[in-house]
């Protein structure tokens, strides 16, 4: 069984959904530490001015918190602003209506208990629109962490019975210790994500990669998942344990 693990992001880019699509089981690392300045609470969309960064503000507490404890700042009208910006950016997109349910879910008059809850709602709804049916589980609902970094990933994989770990491309050179997987008898396979090519809105701004998956869906609609799969390079062979 191939297992992938990733922190939930706000309005995630297609690479995360591609990873979800490739896995047999996906673990949301929702008890990871919240890091300011990362992608846990922000992402890009494309507007007539080019890239626009949308950030869901998180309350400053003076201490590092888990995503499951990070609270969103509702003293700021960010929900209304994000919705208006998205609707204006994709007003002429051929499949903008497919994003309506997501916008209604995220930006209705409600508050999300934590950043983890908001981000999981984003990814769940995007996966539904793309028709990705990979089962998922939250790491916070498994055994409490006894390790960190790669050892934590191995710990989670062993708990769910993984035989292969699907690793994101960025971890190849940054932090993943493949030796720990080998010692646990778990093969490592690299995602090898490649951004799909598709017609975008606001062509004067050129083609932009790694925008929110909203951009892909608004422009390609039901053809979004096939486009991800066509663009996907043949995955590297799994590294035998």
From TrEMBL:
It holds the Pfam family WbqC. Keywords: Plasmid. This is WbqC-like protein. It comes from Streptomyces vietnamensis.
